Amino acid sequence: MNNKIVRMEETHPLTWRIRDDKKTIWIKEYCNKNGYNAFKKAIHQNTPEDIISLVKESGLKGRGGAGFSTGLKWSLMPNITNNQEHRYLLCNADEMEPGTYKDRLLIEYLPHQLIEGILLSAFAIKATRGYIFLRGEYVKGEHILRQAIQEAIHFGYIGCNILNSGFNFDLFLHTGAGRYICGEETALINSLEGRRANPRFKPPFPATFGLWGKPTCVNNVETLSNVPSIVLNGTNWYKKLSKSSDTGTKLMGFSGKVKNPGVWELPFGISAREILEDYALGMQSGLSLKAWQPGGAGTDFFTQKHLDLSMDFSTISQAGSRLGTALAMAVDNQINMVSLVHNIEKFFARESCGLCTPCRDGLPWIVKILHTLKNKKGQSNDIENLERLCISLSPGKTFCAHAPGAIAPLQSAIKYFRSEFENGIL
Length: 426
What we know:
Shape: globular
Domain NADH-ubiquinone oxidoreductase 51kDa subunit iron-sulphur binding: 338-383
Number of helices: 17
Largest sheet: 4 strands, parallel
Low-confidence stretches: none
Structural class: alpha/beta
EC number: 7.1.1.-
Pfam families: Complex1_51K, NADH_4Fe-4S
Organism: Buchnera aphidicola (Aphis helianthi)
Subunit structure: Composed of 13 different subunits. Subunits NuoCD, E, F, and G constitute the peripheral sector of the complex.
Number of domains: 3
CATH class of the largest domain: Alpha Beta
């Protein structure tokens, strides 16, 4: 506990404003804590190109899981040829990854920080309209965002000629119907248009042909919430927050049978062991750590020997998994890996959109094999069949990243805990 980093404005750009009583920070309190000052500075002192350059220089990467450069993504939006044409900024708040709840924290405690990030991003890409695509089950978050948007309109931060700058922007809230695939940006766009939530062929990419055929940029809640502090405090300050080559801080956490499950804002480069022992306070009494996933159900398992890895995009990738959402899940020594992976694969099979054959048919086949192994009725070639299916559903062989994410926990569980799969064979 003594090794915890004290939460303060200089080190915690995302969460320093959070109250001790955990109540929502509404607009007056947010403004009293430097809120909307970054937006005022940007629209009166900077051009949209200045903001894009600043975010590029900051090294901010998308916090939804992919880790793509935010500034580079913004720069892919085409130049405006028609001032009457709408351009869209979409905030992806459809947080459907099992075990992930970081965006919910930002929405419920700091809705105006998110709205300010949306406004800054919209100004940078010259968007005229924005949508927050919110997970339908986040009912409390929906009420909070609706009230916060009305407050922002009342204070003159949303609408026409905002703060006499000539910048016009409208923001709307849309609640989703509950599909994991809406985390994929083109499936999200289809859903927002009222279509079935299937991913689209790319190219064309959303930057040129997105929502209703117009230039569109999709960013995650945590990504957008980082932007105000970068604009207000500069890139050198932001880079120094990190202990690794990835810049800034990240909401990270641990769930499972740990003593203190939760999410905390931490610098990139902190080790998984520090998060588990100093913040989650280790495993519950009588249990030991058997395995862990670094960032969601769709990431490869690690074991105890990986606990000293630096939590950043490149280190976790080089070790054979993905940082993902950085909300880790601890697996204790009493859990059978076949049963656990069977449960995970049932989820991914159910959430497949069914558009491509490998994903539509391969995932239910995997579930069927795991069911027989779980009940110790497996056949001698079941493990080899699972390994062949993992190859058939690997990156580049399916329409989107759903299937490659789905097979990540399976292939790593076979790699590290093969004997448990072999015990399921008749």
